[in-house]
Design brief:
By secondary structure, the protein is mostly helical. The chain has 18 helices and no strands. Helix content is 76%, strand content 0%. The chain is globular. The chain binds phenylalanine (PHE). Phenylalanine (PHE) binds next to helix 1, helix 2, helix 10 and helix 14.
């Protein structure tokens, strides 16, 4: 069976696809906003430390588990420890994928809607736009169809092929926007806010926010890298590939900041001039940006490029999220890819309907409020984002690092990672210590932070 599961055709194809998963709304929308709230450059330095010391070593573990077992997250755990309760950690991962894709797809749909809004020179009215349930559902359905059409064609002919086309487009768009943004008068203040560290703004919860962002942004904690690792050949060097993915993801997030802060300062003068309620949630990119662009020469055109950029980044992430479900159903239930892609996407679409109507379309879902206000906004979409994007990823990463370090065994995992990596072979004892002790402990602290212990 594993013969026809599919495989990445080349190392660069794998790196593009995995970096495409990592690079998404989390980099271009969430990263700059979290940086803005947490002291600018000081936060960026912390974030870099976490990517290098926790995110990357943990990623090697997920990739190695997938490659050794050649299965989806549930099947991979079963292959190491048959019929144990640990398979629930894999099931949690697959369900987390459904949960994230359900609300992520809604936001991704808005990015496409905004391409149209910018093209028709109609940048305002975010509230009315998202409150229209039919518009949101239509765009969400459209984005789901785009995602299906790529995953439908499998690993090499679908995901890898499109990642190789879309990622360079994304990169070029980013460069154009950075040049534009930094050429505006008054933009220099944004650059110095972003690049001069103010360490006095770093507190306990800031430290942990940086860590949570690192996990979400690198697509870790739900077995995505197990799944992508399962299509990787034994010849690949996991360590170098993982480092490339980390560098690309970090670089794109960093570059997004180079667009956003200079643009904000050019128009608004400083961060505080942006209404606090706009600084978080979907507001920042959808309200502030169109407003900023509409005040600039040639801004509408730049706005169109910006939302195309976001759609492209989101698409390479949604295909990866759908692939986790599809891989699970193919491996474990013997389903055919071309049939199951539709079924999996349809179920996920269904799960996302409440999110799509939760921005004013339906009173019930707009004021859902199951999770208390101090964790997330009352609307269904924000609640899903908290449950799956924060809580479930942290819990999943905690369980998977323990599974890899203790149940599979750090030694065996290190053997798999060390293939073709002489550097790793020499330093493996450091990694073994990290996966067994350091990483689970630190993730445990993130979980406490999610519950507001440090606030
Ligand atoms: N890493 C993606 C982003 O930054 C989000 C994501 C999380 C994708 C988990 C897949 C799995 O937008």
């Amino acid at each position: 069976m594993s013969a026809n599961r599919g495989q990445w055709s080349s190392r660069i194809g794998f790196i593009f696809a995995a970096a495409g998963s990592a690079i998404g709304l989390g980099n271009i929308w969430r990263f700059p906003y979290v940086v803005g709230e947490n002291g600018g450059a000081a936060f960026v330095i912390l974030y870099l430390g976490f990517v290098a010391l926790i995110g990357l070593p943990y990623m090697f573990g997920e990739l190695a588990l997938g490659r050794v077992a050649q299965r989806n997250p549930v099947g991979s755990i079963d292959a190491i420890k048959p019929r144990s309760r640990w398979r629930w950690a894999g099931i949690l991962g697959v369900l987390t994928g459904v949960g994230i894709l359900s609300f992520y797809g809604v936001i991704a749909g808005w990015t496409v809607g905004y391409i149209h809004k910018m093209l028709t020179n109609n940048p305002g009215g975010f509230e009315q736009f998202v409150a229209d349930p039919w518009a949101s559902l239509f765009l969400y359905a459209l984005f789901t169809l785009l995602t299906i059409s790529i995953v439908y064609n499998g690993i090499e002919g679908g995901i890898e092929r499109w990642a190789k086309i879309l990622m360079p487009i994304l990169f070029v768009l980013l460069i154009i926007l950075i040049i534009y943004s930094n050429s505006l008068s008054g933009s220099g203040g944004g650059l110095s806010f972003y690049l001069n560290p103010d360490f006095s703004k770093i507190t306990g919860s800031t430290v942990l926010a940086a860590l949570g962002q690192a996990f979400f942004s690198l697509s870790l904690g739900m077995g995505l890298m197990i799944t992508y690792g399962s299509y990787l050949s034994k010849q690949e060097n996991l360590v170098t590939s993982g480092i490339y993915i980390g560098i690309f993801d970090t670089m794109i997030a960093f570059m997004a900041g180079l667009i956003i802060f200079p643009a904000i300062f050019a128009i608004k003068g400083n961060m505080e001039a942006i209404d606090a309620s706009l600084r978080s949630g979907p507001g920042l990119i959808f309200k502030v940006f169109p407003e900023i662009f509409s005040q600039m020469p040639g801004g509408i055109f730049v706005g169109v490029l910006f939302f195309i950029l976001l759609s492209v980044a989101a698409l390479t992430s949604t295909i990866s999220l759908l692939e986790v479900e599809v891989a699970y159903l193919i491996d474990e239930k013997g389903a055919r890819r071309k049939t199951i892609v539709w079924a999996a996407a349809a179920v996920t679409f269904f799960v996302g309907i409440p999110s799509a109507v939760s921005q004013g379309g339906s009173d019930f879902f707009t004021n859902f409020g199951l999770i208390p206000e101090r964790f997330a906004g009352p609307d269904f979409l924000s609640q899903m984002s908290f449950i799956f994007g924060d809580l479930a990823l942290a819990l999943g990463a905690f369980l998977l690092s323990i599974f890899i370090g203790w149940v599979w065994g750090a030694d065996k995992a290190a053997d798999e990672i060390a293939r073709n990596s002489p550097f790793f072979a020499k330093t493996r004892s450091v990694w073994m210590f990290m996966i067994r002790y350091f990483i689970p402990l630190v993730i445990f602290l993130i979980l406490l932070n999610v519950f507001g212990i440090f606030n």
